[in-house]
Amino acid sequence: MKIAGKDFRQRAVAVYQSGEFTREEVAKMFGYTTTTIGNWMRTFKKEGRITSLPRGHRAPAFTAGEQQQLRELVRKQPDMTLEEIRTHFGKNCSLPTVSNTLARLGLTFKKRR
């Protein structure tokens, strides 16, 4: 599925609003389905906007400050396990989340055997 930019959507809505073309013709002109053109028109009429709403994202398990503390902690105690790190910060996240955070920070961890 291709994503249409704001300018592209504005042109499609403007062409349809001109009254010279049907929704089907506009859809063919711009290479989208009639449903998509209809959705753009409905959103524009109801809400006055062309673009989609921003999508939400889950907040990171470790804040920026905690990530800095994590760097320092691993530098001082490189033999800490993921479980120990999670407990140290009082987090209720999975161990893979801790591991992924370390990886994003460019840090490695030691597995306890």
UniProtKB/TrEMBL annotation:
Please give the superkingdom of this protein's source.
Bacteria
Q: What is this protein called?
A: Uncharacterized protein
**What organism is this sequence from?**
Desulfobulbus oralis
Upper lineage ranks? Bacteria, Pseudomonadati, Thermodesulfobacteriota, Desulfobulbia, Desulfobulbales
